[in-house]
Amino acid sequence: SGCGKSTLLRLISGVLTPDSGEIKVFGLKEIPGWAQLSFVPQDSLLLPWRTVLDNIMLPLELNKKGEKSGVSINKARAALNLVNLAGVEDKYPHQLSGGMRQRVALARALVGEARVLLLDEPFAALDALTRSQLHLEMMKIRKQTKFTGLMVTHNIFEAVFLSDRVLVMGEKPGRILGEVHIK
Question: What structural domains does the chain harbor?
Fold first, then answer.
């Protein structure tokens, strides 16, 4: 805790700027457009006044200056199908379990077809069974969408199960202590 894992995600996303040095993703100092990155927080951060479908469509609306179209609705429904939540489009976040809310957050991240997903302990607040189910869904989604993921986790099993490569960070100041390639 406190070694800078979440700060690193914020730096990569562009929410924070580094005091020194530079951040490169795909060899570029700046990623052209928000469509390249998507962020999945620890807490789903769904907007309580929006339905599930409207929450998922939010990135599409922001990219198109508030425009709702048949294409964006279809993309949102497809993302909802990816996370196995078809049929809950008209529900509100308070009507969903924690695991369902986290899957909606994942669908919202996937809807824009980002190349990179930044995941900040997305399963930390879930019970063991729901966490295991979401791990399996993540593996399936990753095969289908071929996104690159950068995930912060304290769970060693989760890191090994979901990753091709694990970077181990040390205590303050945050630095990479080791790298493990998963086969």
Answer: 5-181 (3.40.50.300)
